[in-house]
From TrEMBL:
Keywords: ATP-binding, Hydrolase, Nucleotide-binding. One of its GO terms (molecular function) is hydrolase activity. It comes from Neopusillimonas maritima. SUPFAM superfamilies: Cyclophilin-like, PH0987 N-terminal domain-like. InterPro entries: CT_C_D, Cyclophilin-like_dom_sf, PxpB. Residues 3-203 form the Carboxyltransferase domain. This is Allophanate hydrolase. PANTHER family: 5-OXOPROLINASE SUBUNIT B. It holds the Pfam family CT_C_D.
Length: 240
């Protein structure tokens, strides 16, 4: 593996590990991010993990780019030897009727029943690769191969918040209303982005996510509880 160090202006550097979406590359990106945070590397202001790279924002009055690059090279030579504790979320999703406008079409395209699509999606533990597009939007993989589909040919101009979607090898949840070209197969009543919290985005890169099917009545009950700030999304630490 050849790691590249790319300048992103005079206050940022990109450490690029590869050219594809791959769990091995994601693990390397997240491992470097952990090491930088653990050592509190001088001058580093912020870290932004992506599918295949780590964007490092730094203060040039505290550290020069060349100096930071040498520090990063040293960190890359070390390896994580201890198991890592990560957060695993259980997200309620209604895959019924109005909440899943593309589910029937997805099933037909994949040669499956709608029940099989739901089961495949709900039985998968997803890995949060990165947050992007809009605030709190999680790019999660990897979909079972039966559900790998191209984006819609006619994107929507408005996708409701909470929509659970799939495209390519990814699944995602729209945190806010926005345009979107992914297939909508369900909806969750929880908030994925809340500006009132110190960390507004619910998920972060490296988290694990499982989707729990609920019916429309349970969806409504949870939505009412969320609106009243009386619902907490289930989360536990797991070792990987």
């Amino acid at each position: 593996m050849t790691v590249q160090f790319l300048s992103a202006g005079d206050t940022a550097m990109v450490v690029q590990f590869g050219e594809v979406i791959d769990r091995v590359l994601s693990d390397q990106v997240l491992a470097l991010s952990r090491r930088i945070r653990a050592l509190n590397v001088p001058g580093v202001v912020d870290l932004v993990p992506t599918f295949r790279s780590l964007l490092i924002n730094y203060d040039p009055t505290q550290v020069r780019g060349a100096q930071l690059q040498e520090t990063l090279k040293d960190l890359l030579e070390s390896e994580d030897t201890e198991p890592q504790a990560v957060r695993q979320w259980s997200v309620p999703v209604c895959y019924d009727g109005e909440y899943a406008p593309d589910l029937q079409e997805v099933a037909q395209t994949a040669g499956l029943t709608t029940e099989q699509v739901v089961q495949l999606h709900a039985d998968t533990q997803f890995h949060v690769y990165m947050i992007g597009f809009v605030p709190g939007y999680p790019y999660m993989g990897d979909l079972p191969k039966q559900l790998v589909l191209p984006r819609r040919s006619n994107p929507r101009t408005r996708v409701p918040p909470g929509s659970v979607a799939i495209a390519s090898s990814m699944t995602a949840v729209y945190p806010i209303e926005s345009p979107g070209g992914w297939h909508l197969i369900g909806a969750t009543p929880i908030r994925l982005f809340d500006i009132r919290h110190e960390a507004p985005a619910l998920f972060k890169p490296g988290d694990k996510v499982r989707f729990k099917p609920v019916d429309s009545n349970e969806y409504q009950r949870i939505r009412d509880a969320v609106a009243a700030d009386e619902y907490e999304v289930k989360c536990e630490e797991v070792t990987v």
